[in-house]
Design brief:
Layout lengths: L4 E9 L3 H12 L4 E5 L7 H4 L3 E2 L10 H12 L5 E3 L4 H13 L3 H28 L6 E2 L3 E5 L2 H16 L5 E4 H7 L9 E5 L3 E3 L2 H14 L3 E4 L3 E6 L5 E5 L2 E10 L5 H9 L5 E11 L10 E3 L4 E6 L2 E10 L9 H10 L13 E10 L5 E5 L2 E5 L9 H13 L23
Parallel strand pairs: 1-2, 1-13, 2-10, 4-17, 6-15, 13-20
Antiparallel strand pairs: 3-9, 5-9, 6-8, 7-8, 11-12, 12-13, 14-17, 14-18, 15-16, 16-17, 19-20
Helix pairs in contact: 1-8, 1-11, 5-11
Length: 424
């Protein structure tokens, strides 16, 4: 790369919720930060996710029980999983690594690593919310996981007992208690786990907008519509970036590009991370703002409904089709068909809007949070990017300043993909 370079102390690649959280944290700590975003700040999965601060989700994204259900799920047009068969050859290496991580000992390591992050996530979010004046959009009022199939009830109760034993508070609500808490739910819902120490964001765009404003008011520099085309670490340990808007050099770079992080990490570190995308969909119902009070998900239907200021967001599904295939918006419309039978009155879907985005999922269900020389890494949070954004910002700040992170970060380090054997 040749030509004239603009120089910075720290460049963050990606201005989703994780990149923004890191940017404001470092800028407030006295670091001059430049934030580069391919599209718009807070776009992509950061604006389209379910809005759930899901500290209860402490298990890998897939297990052997789900593998046994794959044929049925893939043949079900209303099912939570879809595979674009044209993408099969590309996704197979990732799938094989996913299967390898389902071995009992490895799955337990992953579970413990997710638990360690999520146990810190709620306190991190509360502190972060207070620091950046986000409290009007953050609700720590709990969430519900429902069962309507009689065969699911015992399993869900056992799941709740297991979570209680590890310190993730929940309690069982029978049909009457459930209807008392959420009167809009239909009588076919047989019971639920209520998680009192979870939360949700009522306006994702407002949160990212507030962080963007704070970052720029502190002197941070933001460049939207700036795609990083090539990245390299130089002999002097500086980093050079060739972008669609010119060339940059920096003492440090932070990769927070979500599902688009893999090629950048390969260029900067030489490590090929087994990262692919689980494409997710949502349907926003703007005329259903008051139907529910907390996020409600279904263990049988495998989707979630979250009350937001803009309406009721129906979100979920997993689609493997890569980054280039056009969205299949029928997947979003199917969420309404899943939601209607759970309610005691028809949902108003007039003026509904749909969305598709890319979840950055690594084959071991864990993010990469690490520092390698001048390169810091914060990507691959799968379904938990919003949940773990604030704690990830804390960890990256500690790595940048070489201070004690407060969490054993070995499970999240990049070297796990460059070693023959992984050990924590």
């Amino acid at each position: 790369m040749t030509g004239t370079f603009s120089c910075a102390r720290v460049i963050i690649i990606g201005a989703g919720i994780i990149g923004l959280s890191i940017a404001v944290s470092l800028q407030r700590a006295g670091v001059q930060v430049v934030l580069l975003e391919t599209n718009k700040v807070g776009g992509g999965a950061s604006c389209g996710n379910a809005g759930h601060i899901a500290i209860e989700q402490v298990f890998p994204i897939a297990d052997l029980a789900i593998v046994r259900q794959l044929p049925r799920m893939l043949l079900d047009s209303m099912g939570p999983l879809r595979l674009d068969w044209r993408y099969l050859a590309q996704i197979m290496p990732w799938f094989f690594k996913l299967l390898a991580n389902m071995r009992p000992a490895r799955a337990e390591q992953i579970h413990q690593a997710l638990l360690a992050l999520n146990q810190q996530s709620l306190n991190a979010w509360q502190t972060f919310s207070d620091e950046w004046n986000l409290s009007q959009w953050i609700r720590i009022q709990g969430s519900l996981l429902l069962a309507e199939n009689p065969a699911s009830v015992a399993g869900l109760q056992q799941h709740g007992a297991r979570l209680n034993a590890m310190g993730i508070a929940n309690n069982w609500l029978d049909t009457n208690a459930l209807r008392e808490r959420e009167p809009a739910l239909a009588a076919n819902q047989l019971g639920a786990l209520f998680y009192p120490q979870t939360g949700h964001v009522t306006n994702l765009n407002a949160v990212t907008g507030q962080l963007k404003t704070a970052f720029m008011q502190m002197g941070g520099q933001l460049y939207e519509g700036c795609k990083v085309l090539q990245a390299a670490v130089q002999d002097d340990h500086s980093v050079r970036l060739h972008t669609s808007s010119g060339q940059w050099c920096a003492k440090h770079v932070v990769v927070c590009a979500g599902a688009h992080s893999r090629p950048l990490v390969r260029q900067l570190t030489g490590v090929d991370v087994p990262l692919d995308t689980e494409r997710g969909y949502h349907l926003m119902l703007p005329n259903e703002k008051a139907r529910l009070s907390v996020p409600v998900s279904s263990i049988d239907r495998r989707f979630i409904m979250t009350p937001m200021q803009e309406g009721l967001r129906l979100a979920g599904t997993v689609e493997f089709a890569g980054l280039q295939a056009p969205p299949n918006m029928q997947r979003a419309q199917q969420l309404l068909q899943l939601a209607q039978p759970m309610m005691n009155a028809p949902l108003d879907d007039s003026d509904a809007t749909s969305w598709m985005g890319f979840r950055p999922s690594i084959a071991d269900s864990l993010p990469v949070i690490d520092r390698r020389g001048p390169v810091l890494l914060a990507f691959g949070h799968q379904h938990l990017g919003l949940t773990q954004a604030a704690v990830t910002a804390q960890l990256i700040r500690a790595l940048y300043f070489n201070t004690e992170p407060g969490i054993d970060i070995r499970p999240y380090r990049l070297h796990r993909f460059s070693c023959a054997e992984t050990s924590f």
